[in-house]
Amino acid sequence: MGRRIKKQDKNMKTILAIDPGLMCGWAKGQVKSLNDWSISGSGVWNLNETRYQGKGWRFIALREHLKELLPADFIVYEKVRRHESTLAAHAYGGFLATIQTFADDNKISYGGVEVKHVKKHATGNGNASKYQMLQMARIRFGKHINDHNQADALFILSRAIQEMF
């Protein structure tokens, strides 16, 4: 089963960070300690279906993308408490179920970080805008960050490392 992020999880080596959504941000980090970690990859997966694919395709695609990032010791995702629409809430629930069942199937621990904590970690403001998150990610991780979803995933990774170590 999944578990919450805890400080005693110091033996973690590889962490996958996911910003669930139709444009799904991801980041993968190699961690030795709080001050000794690196990003081994990050980006955005487009999980929008085409007119020839069913709605369930996005969850199959997410599972396949997660498989490509194995091995992993921990998966951390952004925990969203409020959604703009019912459809967004349903999609998020599907993404969350996919991430959690994938982790359980592969015996990987997992947990969530609340949006306001990620934003506060990144900018000092728990209500930061997408633009502010992107700008801070470019400052902290480099100019190659092109999307706020990728920026969010990098800060989810960074926040998880901070909480664990």
Topology:
Blueprint: E1 14-19, E2 23-33, E3 36-46, H1 57-68, E4 74-79, H2 86-105, E5 109-114, H3 115-123, H4 130-141, H5 148-164
Parallel strand pairs: 1-4, 4-5
Antiparallel strand pairs: 1-2, 2-3
Walk me through this protein's architecture:
There is one protein chain. By secondary structure, this protein is of the alpha/beta class. It has a single domain, classed as Ribonuclease H-like superfamily/Ribonuclease H (Nucleotidyltransferase, domain 5). The chain has five helices and five strands. The chain has helices at 57-68, 86-105, 115-123, 130-141, 148-164; strands spanning 14-19, 23-33, 36-46, 74-79, 109-114. A five-stranded mixed β-sheet has the order 3-2-1-4-5. Strand 4, helix 2 (86-105) and strand 5 (109-114) form a beta-alpha-beta unit. It is globular. The model is unreliable at 1-9 (pLDDT under 50).
Features:
165 residues; five-stranded mixed beta sheet; alpha/beta; disordered N terminus; single chain; Nucleotidyltransferase, domain 5
Task: Give the N-to-C terminal Cα separation.
Answer: 21 Å
Strand order of the largest sheet: 3-2-1-4-5
Give, in order, the helices and strands. EEEHEHEHHH
Which fold name corresponds to the CATH topology? Nucleotidyltransferase, domain 5
Query: Taking all residues together, what is the mean pLDDT?
Result: 90
Sheet with the most strands, sense and barrel status: 5 strands, mixed
Oligomer: single chain
The coarse silhouette is globular
Beta-strand content estimate: 15-25%
Cα-based radius of gyration, to the nearest Å: 15 Å
- Tell me what the CATH architecture is: 2-Layer Sandwich
What proportion of the residues is helical, as a percent range? 40-55%
- SSE class: alpha/beta
CATH class, please?
Alpha Beta
How many domains is the backbone divided into?
A: 1
CATH H-level superfamily title: Ribonuclease H-like superfamily/Ribonuclease H
- SS summary, helix count: 5
Query: Can you count the beta strands?
Result: 5
Detail the poorly predicted runs.
1-9
